[in-house]
Amino acid sequence: MEVKPSSEFSRKRTRHDGLAERCRPCTAHIKRLERYGVDAEWYKKQWIKQDGKCLICTASLEAVGDHVDHDHDTLKPRGLLCGHCNRGLGLFRDSVANLRRAIDYLEGAW
Question: What is the pTM assigned to this prediction?
Answer without folding.
Answer: 0.75
